Amino acid sequence: MKKIDKILSQIMPLDAQVMQSVSEHVDQLTKPIGALGRIEELAIQLAGITRKERPTVKSPAVIVCAGDHGIVSEGVSAYPQEVTKLMIHNFIEGRAAINVLANQIGASVTVVDVGVNGEVNDPSLVMKKVKKGTNNFYTEDAMSEHEALQAIEAGMDVAKNVIDNGHEVIIIGEMGIGNTTASSALIAAYTNANVQEVVGRGTGLNDEEQQHKIAIIEEALKRRNINGASTLQVLARVGGLEIAALTGVLLQAAADRTPVIVDGFISTAAALVAYELSPTIKDYLIISHQSVEPGHKTVFEYLNKKPLLSLDLRLGEGTGAALAYPLLDAATRILTEMATFADLGIEKKELPSESTL
Fold this sequence. Notes:
Blueprint: H1 3-10, H2 16-27, H3 37-50, E1 60-67, H4 82-92, H5 97-105, E2 108-115, E3 126-127, H6 145-164, E4 169-175, H7 179-191, H8 195-198, H9 207-223, H10 231-238, H11 241-255, E5 260-262, H12 265-277, E6 286-287, H13 294-303, H14 319-337
Parallel strand pairs: 1-2, 1-4, 2-3, 4-5, 5-6
Helix pairs in contact: 1-11, 2-3, 3-14, 5-14, 6-10, 6-11, 7-9, 7-10, 7-12, 7-13, 11-12, 12-13
């Protein structure tokens, strides 16, 4: 049995019994029923993921997967490919946006080289390089299916190590110039959405550059013969190595019943791949925010998921997910720190109904 098949077989539905118990507890807290809105939903979801009536999300861990994209040679990005390597140095030195936000919430940051086009020699960098960037999927498949599987398994290994080290929640992010193009292609392929509705400005394209990007993706999808392709084939033909690795993180975490906060457009594309491989994972997904990339909304509608925040972010790196982490912490705390009406010596049935308040 392949490693991925074993993990897929271990992904079970959320624990409905635990969720029911927690739902009943939430309704007994000193507030009107449903008054904490989606924080209550989040508490119940976390209970279902972890199989714990009092889940905790201590010691958050950020995993940033990095990879380069051959498609940048088609002029689809406002930044050169070299920026990927420069940003990895920035992560390692602790000076990027994700480092600042991780420090704020007390999270560790693990940076993984799964497909950077170049060498970064630093002992703190996790080396899982499958190849030096994907191929240009306008002219050939981005990678082989074997390479896509290697990248997924790399993400699984990193997630397993983080979980085994006691981290109770994972925040996923990425770095890779050209990855909005790969993500847009994946989302269009899996959801059958119109490419024009999916493609945004990425790193800051103007109108003409955006239209060029759309045309490149549309033609590439035709050339790669996406129709009828399997989930893995689509990923291999137009995806990214860092996207595949994040897919592996999501799969491993679900198998280990560890919550993952999904970041922006690229991380959500990875969540979509994970869903296509294992539909059960949909109930595990915690989407942190809605970015300004139009294709992000396409995935939400396809998966019937709602983001927690909307802050007009478009950075990636895990920044939006880090900003959403305190909401998960709050959701777990209401279960353990908030009084019930019984604690106050009041029976719920003695209270007036909300309609008479």
